[in-house]
Amino acid sequence: MSRYAAVHANPQGLGDGRPTAMQIVKDESMEGKLAGKTVVITGVSSGIGIETVRALSATGARLLLTARDLAKAKSALDGIFDPSTMDLIQMDQSSLSSVTILVTNAAIMAVQDLQLTEDGHELQFATNHLSHFLLFNLLKPALLAGSSSNFQSRVVVVAAAAHRVAKLSPSDNYHFQKSGYNPWGAYGQSKLGNIYMANEIDRRYGSRGLHAISLHPGLIATGLVQNLPKEELGAMMQNEAMLKMQKSLEQGAATTLWAAVSKELEGKGGLYLSDCAVAPNGQDDGIPFLGTTSSSTYNSEDEARLWKDSLEMVGLSGDE
């Protein structure tokens, strides 16, 4: 049983006894222990990305921080950013020879109308899944090189409980070419893609010391809600059960940090986490915010199909 199980059993809302990201670092005795290693984090300009940076900086690792708007990220990280150990970058994988942890945190949610990228990909699927899939493949040599016997490389994929009510579309309908668009359905599929990517990474590269783990961070009020209609957001904020489950930003980054530095997870992967533990088995109950698995969470056939299709969508001919 997780050491944090008891404090998650009866949540009482923001700032209750559930752990923060920094507490995870201290509980794992990881302060200063990743000196000399490199960590890449996406989506650091808002939300739990900021707290992920704050906590991982305490490990002593060199942090490479990516965001679409570097000026916004610099402002958001005011008081945290340390140029001696951090770099804000627009990713150039050719300059990285060794990476030990990749945290894929950037995301958008519930875009209300069907929007396609210039390549014809549905916007949430492209942003949440394909961009991170491409980034992983570009960084793969560095991640393999950054693994060591005492700390194997980790890809930490921030997914979401919304995957519980999604199914992976057929290969010819990822972008709603043949069906009606649904904001939450599209978001759920993109988050399912996150989990499937992590599971497949571990299947393919775990034996070489490169592991991947996905996670549900929890219910957190961040900029992700900016696309929600006011009525829908208002209803969520009046839901007593959801308010009790809500986490602060510091608490919301805790499971990410547990995935990144936990000694219990050393050499392990292909797992889906929630509340700083491996997510318990759940039912297909149609509830999109519970931190349990569903029948969609693990599916080796769909994971392999999505990997193959994603390679084609990002223009990669194949992988090793």
TrEMBL record:
InterPro entries: NAD(P)-bd_dom_sf, SDR_fam. Keywords: NADP, Oxidoreductase. GO terms for molecular function: oxidoreductase activity. Belongs to the short-chain dehydrogenases/reductases (SDR) family. This is Short-chain dehydrogenase/reductase SDR. It comes from Penicillium angulare.
